[in-house]
Amino acid sequence: MVVSMSLGYLFMYLPLLAAVSFVIGASRHEQKHLILEQTKRTAIWVTSFMLGIYVVLQLVSWMV
After folding, report:
1. Cα distance between residue 54 and residue 44, in whole Å
2. For the chain, what is the radius of gyration of the CA atoms?
3. pLDDT of 35-51, one tens digit each?
4. I need a surface site. Which of 2, 10, 35, 45 has the fewest CB within 10 A?
């Protein structure tokens, strides 16, 4: 069994990811280039974490 996700969920994930990343970046820095750098790092971290969870769920579904 394959864990699947509709494209609609991806379209909801991207604005949420951008909003969360910008808020975290803006709450830590005041300069524009530092905010954008922090935003990029946060977006990569959150996406990596979510992909890790997806891989674990995929492995569990294959073992069952």
Report:
1. 15
2. 15
3. 999 999 999 999 999 99
4. 2
31: left (phi over 0), alpha (psi -120 to 50) or beta: beta
CA 37 from chain center: how many Å?
A: 16
**Amino acid sitting at position 46:** V
Encoded tokens for 51:
């992909």
Tokens of 8: 């609609």
pTM score, whole prediction = 0.81
Cα gap 42→21, rounded to integer Å: 6
Residues 20-56: b if buried by 16+ CB within 10 A, e if exposed: ebbebbeeeeeeeeebeebbeebbeebeeeeeeeeee
Q: Give the mean pLDDT of 20-41.
A: 95
